[in-house]
Amino acid sequence: AQSVAQPEDQVNVAEGNPLTVKCTYSVSGNPYLFWYVQYPNRGLQFLLKYITGDNLVKGSYGFEAEFNKSQTSFHLKKPSALVSDSALYFCAVRGLSGGYQKVTFGIGTKLQVIP
Amino acid sequence: EAQVTQNPRYLITVTGKKLTVTCSQNMNHEYMSWYRQDPGLGLRQIYYSMNVEVTDKGDVPEGYKVSRKEKRNFPLILESPSPNQTSLYFCASSAGQGLSHEQYFGPGTRLTVT
Questions:
Q1: pLDDT band (50, 70, 90) for residue A95
Q2: Which chain A residues touch B44 with a CB distance below 8 Å?
Q3: Are B99 and A90 in contact (CB < 8 Å)?
Q4: Region B4-31: what's the mean pLDDT?
Q5: Exposure winner among A36, B56, B89, B94, fewest CB in 10 A?
Q6: Rg, Å, chain B Cα set
Q7: Distance in angstroms (rounded) separating the CA atoms of residues A83 and B70
């Protein structure tokens, strides 16, 4: 069965500092990995994805993610955090499980950027 | 504007009273899916549809039904709602059936069953 782990419920970072939100995954076959962001009272918005190729993926709003196959990780990063980045972040994996196409999300990590 | 819409946005109902949450997308997407979001559990997939008349169960399908009679619409039906179905529900769509496609989410429907 596929799974996603986001080990931190909350990450606090000072404005201007680099940020990392961690994600590890388990899936059969090739991993298709996604990061989404959820602002209060809103639906999820797509940030970036890893399909194949370069291990460093760049996405929206200056975010990037590093895919590491040996560690089965897909950590979200940003070089300089903004207060407006404060939100709930979800990592997700899309794969085949028992013949069904499944999408599995992590439990989410709340990012708090402190002015 | 390309979007996924859901109605209603908020709903309070009583146990056993059938309800339908509608979902519609205007992007001609093949794949559509329903999720519920609960604190500490993240999003869990309820049902998904690869195309018209093709639906499959997700991880938590019990107590829910879906149909896909038209490409743009994917309603979620609770025939006999119970309090444990109180949750925040999201509909999503993606351009293709393949695993590489990102999803576009609706604004959510907050359901309370008393």
A1: confident
A2: 105
A3: no
A4: 97
A5: B56
A6: 13
A7: 42
Q: 């970072």: which residue's tokens?
A: A13
Task: Look at residue A110 and give its three-state secondary structure.
Answer: strand
Please give, rounded to a whole number of angstroms, the shortest distance from the CA of A41 to a CA of chain B.
Answer: 8
Encoding tokens for residue B90? Answer: 């999201």
Which residues from B are below 8 Å from A6, CB to CB? 42
Are B105 and A94 in contact (CB < 8 Å)? no
- Bond from prior residue into A40 cis (ω within 30 degrees of 0): no
- What's the CA gap between B102 and A36, in Å, rounded? 9
CA atoms of B22 and B9, how far apart (whole Å): 10
Please indicate whether, in this complex, the C-beta atoms of A43 and B40 are within 8 angstroms of each other: no
Instruction: Give B-chain residues touching A43 at CB under 8 angstroms.
Output: 4, 90, 105-108
Sort strands B109-113 and B87-94 into parallel, antiparallel or unpaired: antiparallel
Per-residue pLDDT tens digits for B59-96: 999 999 999 999 999 999 999 999 999 999 999 999 97
